[in-house]
TrEMBL record:
It comes from the Bacteria. CDD domains: SDR_c (cd05233). This is Oxidoreductase. InterPro entries: NAD(P)-bd_dom_sf, SDR_fam. GO terms for molecular function: oxidoreductase activity. Keywords: Oxidoreductase. The keyword Oxidoreductase applies. SUPFAM superfamilies: NAD(P)-binding Rossmann-fold domains. PANTHER family: ALCOHOL DEHYDROGENASE. Belongs to the short-chain dehydrogenases/reductases (SDR) family. Pfam families: adh_short.
Amino acid sequence: MERKNQYVLITGASSGIGYELARQFAQNGYDLVIVARDHETLKSKADELKNYGVNVIPISKNLFLQEEAYSLYSELKMNAISPEILVNDAGQGGYGKFQDTDIHREVDIVNLNIISVIILTKLFVKDRLPKGSGKILNLASVASKVPGPWHSVYHATKAFILSWSEAIREELKDSGISVTALLPGPTNTDFFNKADMNRSKILEDRESLASPEEVAIDGYKALMNGDDKIISGLKNKLSVAMSNLSTDSMAARNMAEMQKPVTEK
């Protein structure tokens, strides 16, 4: 394995797709800065990733709080680290009808899924523009392509991420910095537990869930190719193609059927 001597900054790196992306980069010789809230889990994952022969710096941050996104970059600067690649993976959802869900939880989700992402990306771009190189991978979702009854705020945050990623990609096209959006479908991670979503019909067939490793491989390849976006998995490509052919209200109705609780008629 060739050491790249380049750092990759990955949020949400202690589990799921974020951890599998970290493994892809480590296997390919990149040094890592991995970020998550739980210090002990993060440290143990860092120890695992060091077995690939790369440097791994774990930094515990709560990216529900925008000041922690700023302080993350301050710590990197103090340590003279300028990541060559940024992976915005951290994100959460909240399940239920909007009239019933907790507004504080939803504001937290917007802060994590959108605010922390645009802060980190702004700081990354400002840092990398004078150097004329850099790559950004933003975790969108197939949820970005359709309205999401029972999961409305999450779907909306991912629609923002996809639209914004495509816009800044165009702005940065002559800068040497590429922007790629990764659109996984339902994936076998802890996401559904955190979203309190285990009673959703979408999880009735858990064996159909994608593996986080497969999603990470798709994302890594698309990022390295400089692609604008990648929908991970054939089934997800087909479902997005079908939703593109239907009206928004029809897509919303279909998604409501897929995502409603198993107990709902």
